[in-house]
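[SOLVED] Need 3D model of a two-part complex

Original post:
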Amino acid sequence: MGKKLLLEHINVPGIETLEVYRQKGGYASVEKALKTMTPNDVVEEVKKSGLRGRGGAGFPTGMKWSFLYKPEGVERYLVCNADESEPGTFKDRFLMEHIPHSLIEGMITSSFALGAKTSYIYIRGEYFYVARILEKAIDEAYAAGLLGKNILGTDFSHDCYVQVGAGAYICGEETALLESLEGKRGNPRIKPPFPAIAGLYGCPTVVNNVETIATVCPIINMGGEEYAKIGIGRSTGTKLISASGHINKPGTYEIELGLPVEEFIYSEEYCGGIINGNKLKAVVAGGSSVPVLPAHLILKTEKGEPRLMSYESLSEGGFVSGSMLGSGGFIVYDETTSIVKNLYTFARFYHHESCGQCSPCREGTGWMEKILHRIVEGHGKPSDIDLLWDIQRKIEGNTICPLGDAAAWPVASAIRHFRAEFEEYINHPEKIKDIKHYYSVHQLAGA
Amino acid sequence: MSKEIKFNEETLALVHKLMNRYPEGKHKSALLPILHIAQAEFDGWLSPATMDYVASILKIQSIEVYEVASFYSMYNLKPVGKCLLEVCRTSSCWVRGAEDVVKHLEKRLGIKEGETTADGMFTIKTVECLGSCGSAPLLQCGASYHENLTFEKVDALIETYRAEGKRKSYTDLDYKNTL
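Solution:
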């Protein structure tokens, strides 16, 4: 069994309540931080831990915190990004739904470190029922003196609120999230200034992912140096992975970073292998935005070394033969999957979710969807593959926010690794016409 | 069917409580949650009159509400059935049969995706990733996620909803007590 820090008590009945959560050592990090440490001590421990943002970008959290501008007399905010919308990702929902207090505890400890009197948890609108669970947890925390004025009898006072979104992937981008939190359209802001200088209401703000904030609790409890011993190299600690697709045991798993990908896919402790004993075809390792890799490159790097679940190993080989750990949205495709049709669902997604501010993304995502649609419908032209390649090249790097890159990378990687399949669709449309490239719900019900 | 566009006192108190979560002068932050409440209260969609009413509560221009309502996919700018069946269709759901679920619903309800049944009970809508990829395929109706769908589960769901005959909103689940 791998080390568990966030999900250690996941099977304890009643862990969603404050009472049981505290019996299991919950809110120890609040006690320790507020009573025995200075805010700067907390920041230092997080720096030492090597914790990297768990939302997808993997930016060192301690460094992000230390950028926060702290002028006298100006409010500072902590905002939790619970907008989890990256296809393939559902780990934050799992954590918030089952152990809501781990996030609330992290919000209090992190806010203390940052000197934030108010924090907001911005959660995607579809997760309305999870927002209710969080609000219940917040009410319990207020009643126990863990939120509100003079927390645990100290000088630190803090209020935490949940804000629901209304259906927009782009609001997972931190400046779009702040716009949305201000009651506006989720259009990403031009940076600089970064939120650390001018964020919510123009005030210095830190935006962190749910898992990142929850991880601050074990870091404070065990100390940053101890935490940094877990994992591998610069990928310290544990990571929640959302596993879905053609595997026997889809779900959320906490892994110690450095676990071999092969073990994650095939062992009974995690995904339990491919359904129906089928062959592995491809994996999207970190949410829809990261490059798709064929089986031989996800299990081993181009050099022939075992591929590991870590920031470095998954990106080894760059985009030519590697991918990214991203959000930990791990989608597995077996031999029956059409990469082209799957890519079409991604292209449709990005076109739907483009905010429309930047022309390359607004127009380009629509063109890519349209071209892929005609290919999957059997009307593709031989020039379409190069056209897709050309469009994605012109979107990447030419937009205000990373959504453009996120829309381009799946297209580029699918063509790079599966070009022959695109050619098959275009040259022999009669062959693909009647093939169903997905499992029927009945096939799965028996699985 | 159309009633006066005005929150009752209890809802209005909730709306003001929401507005007070934000600093002085930043009450517009409450726009998204208030639009959810308005949609739930006024027939499941945001008519221009509803949006104007929300603008008047927040003391902002109507256009500030329109531009937000039209940006986010959970706000309905046209009337929908009492039960809006939102089927996720992105990758993980697609590879596990989301298209079958949509086809089954279409056959069962006698309408196409995007349409509403003649009795105003059901609307079928396909949506992008709902963040439940590990329990695919799924559909959302109001605040509820219905996961690991089979045709039998879909049939049972339709029967239950038809028998209840109630409008399903994202804000069901006693939101008045907890928001």
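Edit: Chain B has two domains: 9-69, 83-164.
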